[in-house]
Amino acid sequence: MTSTTDQVANLADLAATTLLRFATAGSVDDGKSTLVGRLLHDSKSVLTDQLEAVERVSADRGQDAPDLALLTDGLRAEREQGITIDVAYRYFATARRRFILADTPGHVQYTRNMVTGASTADLAVVLVDARNGVIEQTRRHAAVAALLRVPHVVLAVNKMDLVGYEEAVFAKIAAEFTAYASDLGVPEITAIPISALAGDNVVEPSAHMDWYGGPTVLEHLETVPVSHDLTACPARFPVQYVIRPQTAEHPDYRGYAGQIASGVLRVGQAVTVLPSGRTSVIAGIDALGESVDIAWAPQSVTVRLTDDIDISRGDLIAPSASAPATTQDVVATVCHVADQPLAVGARVLLKHTTRTVKAIVKEIPSRLTLDDLSQHPNPGQLVANDIGRVVVRTAEPLALDAYADSRRTGSFLLIDPADGTTLAAGMAGESFASRAETTVQADEEGWDF
């Protein structure tokens, strides 16, 4: 008979492998939108009216064939300029897997958009023009993918039809990119020669590159292992809402509702509530109106404890044996996404899972130059699209995991308290950007948290 643990593991593996989140990236005019359009078209994921609209626009431009890039470049400015400006999300499916695709811009000034699209991706497709090879923007996108801990990277060497489908051209680009990405710590790199315009090796194998024996892009997307062993991850349950009906039917009901961020929760499990540090035991778990003995990420559930503890939105419930440490000194790598600069001394709000606290930017030790991965020490501020190391002091303790251990509970946002604008996306803990230890100095203006 299959144990409960085995059932959870099987269900978790099934959920993880039937959905793939992936992002495309590359320099301007490398063919990202055309590749996405080709994937959608050749996998028969385009509605008839959508294709007819693309054919009309293409004909109005005097093009003989439909411009498949128009399937993703939805903004008017994108269509007029022939570029991608914002992240375009597309949802499609094949018989083997469901996909959520983020088509991200290639311009340097839209690096923040790539960070947004790749932050939840299981795989990144980095396009390279076979005529140009690996350029600065290619290295920039590889660095961002490594920084965001994207586990799988596909190098799609596009426009092979314009270099005569030469194997030597592909081999040189693949070797250069693989060496660079491996140095950054990217765990898995797969290189595929393609022509998005002609359809070579996108969905169907190419008749022009018999020297290539690997998978097509779609075949790789359908078969790449995306497995998150939820039973091995420490459980993290950010409380979103406290349920107290206080009705005749439920006079004493007290439940804590939210979405399990990682791991598994079980009835009878000893847990710690953070940041207070109070301990209790899970008395019950309610899911979809039914009591269950076990629940796992990313289920939304209500947890009941044996003790009446002061718990509110923003608290974190975790197994006592693997509870994260709390801290008020957050050392992290951030990508600045706002037009206004982020300077040392800035008063901000830090949002981590369901918890939002006041904070001060105490230090900006370095800014990363993605072109060559060099460090610019003590820049004083970060501007739009900058990636750098920061030290943030919070008014209240936070229970953060390292981003390397958990992309969900190791990430946070910095927010402008005046108007609610998102300033930066942060990744707690170490990264390749900086390994130096940082010392927090006393705040001269009296905001000493």
Taking the sheet with the most strands, its summary is:
8 strands, antiparallel
Mean pLDDT: 84
Outline, from the CA principal axes? Answer: globular
Instruction: Please tell me how large the radius of gyration is.
Output: 24 Å
| Number of beta-strand segments | 25
Low-confidence stretches: 11-17, 75-85, 433-449
Question: Alpha-carbon distance between the termini?
Answer: 54 Å
Alpha-beta classification: alpha+beta
Number of helices: 8
Beta-strand content estimate: 25-35%
Helix % is 10-25%
Sum this structure up briefly.
The protein is α+β, with helices and mostly antiparallel strands. The protein has helices at residues 4-17, 32-42, 48-60, 76-81, 111-118, 136-147, 167-184, 217-223, and strands at residues 19-26, 88-93, 98-103, 123-129, 152-158, 188-193, 237-238, 241-243, 255-259, 264-266, 270-274, 278-287, 290-292, 294-296, 300-305, 316-319, 327-336, 342-343, 347-352, 355-369, 374-377, 381-382, 387-398, 411-415, 422-428. Mean pLDDT is 84; it is low at 11-17, 75-85 and 433-449.
